[in-house]
Specification:
This protein has about 190 residues and is α+β, with helices and mostly antiparallel strands. The chain contains six helices and ten strands; from the N terminus they run H-E-H-E-E-E-E-H-E-H-E-H-E-E-E-H. The strands form three sheets. It has a six-stranded mixed beta sheet with strand order 2-10-9-5-6-7, with helices on one face. Strands 1-8 form a two-stranded antiparallel sheet. A hairpin with a 5-residue loop joins strand 9 and strand 10. The longest helix has 17 residues.
Length: about 190
């Protein structure tokens, strides 16, 4: 049996690793400018949640990077990975190229919803500068996507099957090219 002190230290260390791999949504652009310059791979430290499995996609108002209304629906016949991210979030920026590769495969749609509260053109320029062009980029003009999906941390990704039912959600940075992630994404084809 572990002492209460040792148990607290072990749990605290594990929680610290999860928090290091994610961005606090409340931090804002001014407190994490280094994220814009850093895009080096980090270890995958994410939490997987299946507690919302089977829930239908919520209705939410989104716009494209130009500010035009964007229809939010699962692409017909294929799963959809919704990714809540921000330009100031290091783990978010790090996983964008891998998410773009997932989208480029054509078998899974990827909807990247920016939680930045900035001019729409800045997000489009940010993605273009990083050659991220296969994901469907979206903005959250009402700033409620994190509330709708109960996401207090960025990045958060929610995976839906082709019928629009949630399979799982992942919080924190994830290596979308890893064997584990590929196995998780394959679940969308099984439904």
């Amino acid at each position: 049996m572990l002492s209460p002190s040792l148990t607290r230290n072990i749990l605290g260390a594990g929680l610290s690793l999860v928090l290091l791999a994610a961005c606090d949504r409340q931090s804002g652009a001014g407190t994490q400018p280094q994220a814009l310059a850093q895009a080096t791979p980090t270890p995958e430290v994410s939490a997987l949640d299946r507690g919302h499995k089977g829930e239908a996609m919520p209705a939410i108002k989104l716009t494209d990077p130009a500010g035009n209304p964007l229809a939010f629906a699962a692409p017909a016949g294929k799963p959809l990975l919704v990714n809540l991210w921000a330009t100031w979030c290091g783990p978010c920026v790090t996983e964008l190229p891998a998410l773009d590769k997932v989208a480029a495969s054509g078998t899974i749609g990827v909807l990247a919803i920016s939680e930045d509260m900035t001019a729409p053109g800045k997000v489009a320029a940010f993605l273009a500068a990083r050659h991220v062009g296969h994901v469907t980029a979206a903005l959250d003009p009402e700033g409620n996507a994190s509330e709708v999906w109960q996401a207090g941390t960025l990045p958060t990704s929610i995976y839906y099957d082709a019928r629009g039912h949630e399979l799982w959600r992942s919080t924190g940075g994830r290596d979308w090219g890893s064997a584990e992630s590929k196995k998780l994404l394959a679940e969308g084809s099984a439904h």
